[in-house]
Amino acid sequence: MRKLIAAIMVAGATLVAGSATAADFPYYPPVIEIPDVDYGVQGSFYLRGSAAGNALWTREFVAYECVGCGGASVPTGIPTEDWGYGYSIGAGFGYETGTGLRFDATVDYIDNDGVSVVKGPEFLPADRQGTYTARLRSGLALANAYYDFAFTDYGYGAAGGAFGYVGAGAGVAFNKFDITSPPASATPALSGDNTSLAAAAMVGVGYDFGAVVADLGYRGVYIAQIGNGQPGVEEIYADNNWIHEIRTSLRYRFN
Q1: Residue 52: CB atoms within 10 Å
Q2: pLDDT at position 51, please?
Q3: How far apart, in whole angstroms, are the C-alpha atoms of residue 255 and residue 16?
Q4: Strands (DSSP E) found in the chain
Q5: N or C terminus: fewer CB in 10 A for the chain?
Q6: What is the pTM of this model?
Q7: CA dist., res. 95 & res. 28, Å (int)
Q8: Is 24 left (phi over 0), alpha (psi -120 to 50) or beta?
Q9: What residue ranges define each of the domains in the chain, with the CATH number in brackets?
Q10: How far is CA 113 from the centre of its chain?
Q11: d(Cα 142, Cα 199) in Å, to the nearest integer?
């Protein structure tokens, strides 16, 4: 009987002590963290504007000339003496996938002046001798593709900071070619226009602010042929022309 009473008293004391201890520690329900939904990398459309300084290089101009002879004029290559210098401005519309790839269509106005050739005493008649300079004004339409790559370990994305890029484009150039002949020339060279295939290669760096992206880079524009578009003996043209640009651009994302 004594053992039974003692057991009952121990059980009662344990119950009271457990209740007091539980009262000292408030109950907090467990916090269950639900991860954010990953919708994946989002693409966006953008508008762009650009401006550049440029330099035009071409190896030679071809003109119909009588070189040291009294016969018919024949196509003759005349090496260039000076580069031409100028500027370009452009605009475009594009889409970036959010994975580093982006695509756009651009139109540019290119103005370049000062590329020149010198015809020496071997060119006849004498009034055709002297320095000829040319001015190129071109409308350039290109379809372009680029790859942007981040300079950090955070990967590519909106407001991603500094990045580099490479790109290439293909399209067409609508050229206006103005030629200034020597003052003493009795038969000035004719100006004119032509249309040519064109392409571009691009590389540069930029900074992604989020809605606005700025970049600075090099663009090499290849124009297959520039010339005055005149048939026969009045034709003057240059093949495989390169316009080297240092270009800055701004892109604005609008979705």
Answers
A1: 22
A2: 98
A3: 65
A4: 44-57, 60-67, 74-82, 84-96, 101-119, 123-124, 130-150, 161-180, 192-208, 212-227, 236-253
A5: N
A6: 0.80
A7: 50
A8: alpha
A9: 45-253 (2.40.160.20)
A10: 23
A11: 7
